Write the structure tokens for this entry.
Amino acid sequence: MAASLPPSLAEIVEDFQALEERERLELLLEFSESLPELPERFREHPELLEQVVECQSPLFLTLEVGAEADRPVRLYFSAPPEAPTTRGFASVLHEGLDGLPAETVLSVPDDMPEQLGLTRAVTPLRMRGMTAMLGRIKRQVARALEA
């Protein structure tokens, strides 16, 4: 299943799938600790970030698509430290997608969050938020390519 994912994201999915279910949540919480801070240009201008309202915790994201031929995507997230599940998934997306070509990001299957094997470890509402994050990223990338 992870074969349709870019290598960086496929590796993360494989790491999750190699664990027992209860350990997957621990791995997600470890990811939450590695979410990069927002660059100052976004911290000072929160209006440049889009809120993912489907997330139970306040999560905001934005991205930049480079002008190079492969149109690399840079991802930026803002999630409070007291929302480790949300931060963890944002970190998974950051680590798995940041710097990849726009077309590669757009080709990530919409069900990728389910491939992590967390559907019984986290609530359906949280899974919906994770799926919404990926959807927002893909929509922003598509808009950037159209511009």
Remarks:
- The chain is about 50% helix and 10% strand.
- Strands lie at 50-51, 60-65, 73-78.
- The chain has a mean pLDDT of 93.
- The two ends are 33 Å apart (CA to CA).
